[in-house]
Task: inverse folding
């Protein structure tokens, strides 16, 4: 996720120049939006199954919320 933020900064420095993703760079607002998407798309790697996964939640009997792997169902 740190990599994504660094990339976004790099993009901003090249603002105004032509690049492969050209049109987006000409509109400053879109760059910020892309940064947000990068961060929210970062996946957690499950310790149990070793795969990148999304985080699910399970409510325990005492009401506490436990994060779990959606691939294998193990607690994170
Ligand atoms: Zn897993």
Result:
């Amino acid at each position: 996720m740190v990599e994504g933020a660094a990339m976004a900064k790099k993009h901003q420095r090249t603002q105004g120049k032509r690049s492969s993703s050209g049109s987006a760079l000409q509109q400053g607002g879109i760059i910020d939006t892309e940064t947000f998407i990068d961060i929210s798309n970062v996946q957690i790697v499950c310790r149990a199954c070793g795969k990148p996964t999304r985080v699910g939640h399970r409510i325990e009997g005492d009401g506490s919320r436990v994060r779990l792997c959606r691939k294998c169902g193990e607690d994170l």
User: Anything to note?
Assistant: The longest strand covers residues 55-59. Residues 28-41 form the longest helix (14 residues). The mean pLDDT is 73. DSSP finds three helices and four strands in the chain.
